[in-house]
Design goal:
Distance between the termini: 141 Å
Structural class: mainly beta
Number of helices: 2
Number of strands: 24
Largest sheet: 18 strands, antiparallel, barrel
Shape: globular
Oligomer: single chain
Low-confidence stretches: 1-8, 26-95, 115-134
Radius of gyration: 52 Å
Strand content: over 45%
């Protein structure tokens, strides 16, 4: 009895151990040994033996393995979809994309749609395009740019003086030009203008050639220090009503004037300082009388040197009050003139004023002061005067510019016993763009000569008007009219001038 029970228990223990061994073998078998999914397909029937395409190794519950032969078509064995154990039975077979091949492009509706840029409107016919106003292109000369203008005109002039009248018709040629540098540092600007007249009616009387050339070299010495080296030359002929003109002369004396200067400007915070030294040289040509007599004017040749100091304080970027002192000496080539007077002189001046800059609308300066001139000859009375000097550029609206100027000077006289006079001059100019290619001009000036040492005072008025029509970029048509009147000082003269011209620009 004991043997049977032991034997039965021993067999039960052996069966439990064998079952546990088989279960461990089944769990240790890799998953790739299964050829079919343990779950049925989502939309198909249970797998069948006929769906197998390769020998299937199945694990029995007891842990043994067996092989079941495959059946089906011969081409099914090459289908990779059927060999994939992760694909459920009954799925539709198809080509498998290569791992290195990019997936087909699919448009992302969340991204903005790319559109070609707007090509714009069709180009307008060049003949229909309006001309664009602008300055001429100029002539390139190395690092300089030259902008020349040549104007040829036909003019007439009528002069009424002391009950007599004379008229002359003449051709005029005016050459203007500006030469400017385009250096990265420093700058040089040269401006010039010359007028040549040739009468074709009225003889040679009244021809007035003029030349004016100015140069300015700006040197940027430091951030707050600027120097200017200036030079110039001018030639003009004295008017018949000038106080120093020769009475009865058919050709008045011509005046050659040479100028040069050096100035240094320095800013120390809100303090602005300027020191300047100017040189001038004036020579006079001979005058010709109606009877052919030539009168020498060499006794009027002189040289002047002037120095000035200015100190300003910046109340704001728009307003800078200043004070200025100046002194100068004039040397005549001849110790005494033809009348026996020593006219060399020493001058002193002081003035105060304000510089203003309100942008494009208004800028300039104005000042008032006092000037005293003492002559070497004790017989010549000293000249002193209150002076007014200034200039302003005002633009009330776009296309309209107004230039205003004030100037006070002391002029030497050639009349025996008379030292000189004080000359006050006010000028004004207005330009207005009436159309894109049409500009109107108005000019005016008034000059008052105060002969404090003797003689009657004199006043000269000048008024003018003109139009400029820009035919194209390089061609302008101009028209001008001017009226000039001189009263006092023993003269009574009226002059009317008018003319048209054609200007060629480059």
């Amino acid at each position: 009895m004991k043997i049977i029970m032991r034997t039965g228990r021993t067999r039960e223990r052996r069966r439990a151990a064998a079952g546990l061994l088989f279960a461990c073998s089944a769990l240790a078998t890799p998953a790739v040994a299964q050829t079919t999914s343990p779950f049925p397909p989502q939309g198909g029937s249970l797998p069948s033996v006929t769906d197998a395409t390769a020998p299937t190794s199945q694990t029995t519950l007891g842990g043994g393995t067996g092989t079941q032969p495959a059946s089906g078509t011969a081409g099914a064995a090459d289908d990779p979809i059927r060999d994939d154990p992760n694909v459920a039975a009954g799925a539709v077979s198809g080509p498998v994309p290569d791992a290195d091949q990019e997936p087909p492009y699919e448009e992302d509706l969340n991204q903005p749609y790319e559109q070609p840029l707007d090509p714009g409107a069709e180009p307008i016919d060049a003949r229909e395009q309006p001309r664009e106003p602008g300055d001429p292109t100029g002539i390139r000369l190395g690092s300089f740019l030259l902008r020349p203008t040549v104007t040829n005109g036909v003019n007439t002039e009528i002069t009424r003086s002391n009950g007599s009248e004379r008229r002359r018709d003449y051709f005029s040629t005016v050459i203007r030009g500006t030469l400017s540098s385009d250096w990265s540092r420093h700058s040089l600007t040269v401006t010039g203008e010359g007028t040549l007249e040739r009468n074709f009616r009225g003889g040679d009387e009244g021809e007035r050639p003029e030349v004016n050339i100015d140069a300015d070299l700006r040197l940027d010495l430091a951030d707050d220090t600027i120097a200017h080296v200036t030079g110039g030359y001018s030639f003009t002929r004295e008017d018949d009503y000038d106080p120093n003109a020769i009475g009865g002369a058919t050709t008045q004396s011509g005046v050659n004037e040479f100028t040069g200067g050096l100035s240094v400007e320095r800013d120390l915070g809100k303090i602005h300082g300027t020191a300047a030294l100017d040189l001038s040289r004036a020579t006079y040509t001979d005058a010709k009388l109606s009877d052919g007599t030539v009168v020498s004017m060499k006794d009027r040749n002189r040289t002047g040197i002037d120095g000035r100091l200015r100190l300003g304080y910046e109340l704001s970027p728009a307003l800078i009050p200043y004070v200025e002192v100046a002194t100068g000496h004039t040397f005549y080539d001849q110790k005494r003139d033809n009348s026996g007077y020593a006219r060399s002189s020493q001058s002193y001046a002081a003035r105060g004023g304000v510089e203003f800059d309100f942008g494009e609308k208004l800028r300039g300066e104005i000042g008032a002061g006092y000037e005293f001139v003492d002559y070497e000859d004790s017989r010549l009375k000293s000249v002193d005067a209150i002076t007014f000097n200034g200039n302003a550029i005002w633009s009330p609206q776009r296309g309209t510019d107004v230039n205003l100027g004030l100037r006070t000077t002391v002029q030497d006289s050639t009349t025996p016993g008379q030292s000189g006079w004080v000359e006050y001059q006010a000028t004004a100019g207005l330009t207005h763009e009436m159309r894109d290619h049409l500009v109107a001009r108005l000019t005016g000036s008034s000059t008052y000569r105060d002969f404090s040492s003797g003689g009657s005072d004199e006043t000269v008025w000048v008024a003018g008007a003109g139009l400029t029509w820009a035919i194209n970029r390089y061609l302008d048509l101009t028209g001008d009219v001017e009226y000039e009147q001189a009263d006092g000082g023993g003269s009574d003269e009226r002059i009317v001038r008018a003319g048209v011209g054609l200007a060629v620009k480059r």
